[in-house]
């Protein structure tokens, strides 16, 4: 079952995954451990933030909330520095807790916990790993958003697994529809808008090419240079199982 969707004080959400870490680059599961951004991750955040602003973020009508893990908070400051708006930190936006998998590579998990790894690749619930299950992740993330101040848009800076569970809950998708959406790349973002009583996915996994960032402008059409085309090897979460690469380790189902 999906978590019940509470009424949220914002009608538009930008769900933004943090930039790359050295652990992303080497295929190591992070979970709620706290490695910082690497040089490429800091560059991704710096390149992406102006595109988010150019997508119509107005400082006085925008709230920015982030996981308190350093890789997310550091990504968020690239945006709040441009908007000159405060950053809210909320531990409920942390990554999916992965129990005994945290700190291990995919190869190490496969060797130490082959049955768990097989379940994960097949999209089945992983038993005996510890950590959190998907509904709990969605529920805590929704709780964080329900307590935001009223605003026209909230930028939610979080992690690959948490972003996936949050969007599935907002779109009222059950476990049978998990993996319908590809995972967010490092510094990729998705946008959702409330229409009536339901949420609608407006764009997914937008990324910024490695080119000079544009000057901020209010026109939404000036935003992200690519949508839904980031290759998995760019640092997406390993939610796609066997199709993911060694660089993708961050979160699981």
Automatic annotation (TrEMBL):
Signal peptide span: none
Domain of life: Bacteria
Active-site residues annotated for this sequence: 18 (tele-phosphohistidine intermediate), 95 (proton donor/acceptor)
CDD domains: HP_PGM_like
InterPro entries documented for this protein: His_Pase_superF_clade-1, His_PPase_superfam, PGM_Phosphatase
Segments of this protein annotated with the region Disordered: 213-253
Ranges annotated as spanning the membrane: none
Cellular component annotations (GO), alphabetically ordered: cytoplasm
Binding positions (substrate): 17-24, 71
Gene Ontology terms for molecular function: phosphatase activity
Listed Gene3D superfamilies: Phosphoglycerate mutase-like
Stated name of the protein: Probable phosphoglycerate mutase
Organism: Geodermatophilus dictyosporus
